[in-house]
Design brief:
By secondary structure, the chain is α/β, with parallel strands linked by helices. The chain contains ten helices and nine strands. The strands form two sheets. It has a seven-stranded mixed β-sheet with strand order 5-4-3-6-7-9-8, with helices on both faces. The protein has a two-stranded antiparallel ribbon with strand order 1-2. A hairpin with a 2-residue loop joins strand 1 and strand 2. Helix 1 crosses helix 2.
Length: 264
């Protein structure tokens, strides 16, 4: 969390009180972040008002922290989750020498930006079907020289990437359609449905990625997809049916489950 410039205790206390009354569980932390981000008292007050009205904190301040990076987010763009940092960690551990990286279903581009930061100089491509996500991701991967493409999964990518990708990270939607209504209101009301809804069993998009990934991976390259505990066996089977050697990595701390497929 960034350092906070001094503000009168009464101001901080009033922000905490307003957030706590609105039901924010981490009111103190959120108040610190708002006060650190706002440039003026009026801007801080407007941020508090938006947060109290139910806007996700990341959209209130305009960014989310992801593996130490400040990732810009905006209305209608999927907010990167902390558990997805585990996917990045697994990718870096399994392919530390990757020269070509693809961030599919990129949303804000957080995964691609974090992979580029961890690998150093790479050829980075990101893609999403949502124009708002594409605009957001372009800003977030610019420092890494990344290219962002709009389109449906692999259709968005340049053809010359086939057979060259060392890391293919695909943070696909995996919530079953009939469970969307069970998600927190912040997600249901402020994030795009296409970034959440994975179809009847939540694995529609994952299956499409698994089927096509071998054509794009370099020999020994890996594809990584986040899923849930109960979906993992079916996801592993989808990867294996595509000719990939499949593994499951789990972080109990982050409640993260990442299916990894490695090309022959």
């Amino acid at each position: 969390m960034p350092s906070v410039s001094p503000v009168p205790p009464s101001s901080r206390d009033s922000v905490v009180a307003a957030l706590r009354t609105a039901g924010c569980v981490f009111a103190e932390d959120e108040a610190e972040l708002i006060l650190a981000t706002a440039r003026t008292p009026a801007e801080a007050a407007a941020m508090v008002e938006r947060r109290v009205a139910g806007l996700p904190l990341e959209l209130v301040v305009g960014w989310a922290e992801f593996r130490g990076l400040r990732i810009t987010v905006g209305p209608g763009v999927f907010v990167p989750r902390r558990r997805t940092e585990f996917l990045v960690e697994q990718a870096l551990a399994r392919a530390p020498g990757a020269g070509v990286v693809v961030d599919l279903c990129c949303g804000s581009g957080a995964v691609g930006a974090a992979l580029a930061a961890g690998l150093g100089r790479v050829e980075l491509h990101a893609a999403d079907i949502d124009p708002a996500a594409v605009r957001c991701a372009r800003g977030n991967v610019a420092a890494a020289g990344g290219h962002v493409h709009q389109g449906d999964l692999f259709e968005a990518l340049p053809g010359d990437l086939r057979g060259r990708v060392g890391i293919l990270a695909a943070n696909v939607p995996y919530v079953p359609s009939d469970e969307i209504g069970l998600l927190p209101l912040e997600a249901r009301a402020h994030e795009p449905l296409a970034a959440l809804d994975g179809g009847a069993d939540g694995l529609d998009v994952l299956r499409r990625v698994a089927a096509e990934a071998p054509r794009w991976l370099a020999p020994g390259g890996c594809v990584l997809v986040e899923t849930s505990r109960h979906q993992a066996p079916t996801a592993l089977d989808a990867f294996e049916r595509s000719g990939l050697t499949a593994h499951l990595a789990v972080s109990e701390e982050l409640y993260a489950h990442v299916v990894i497929g490695v090309a022959p």
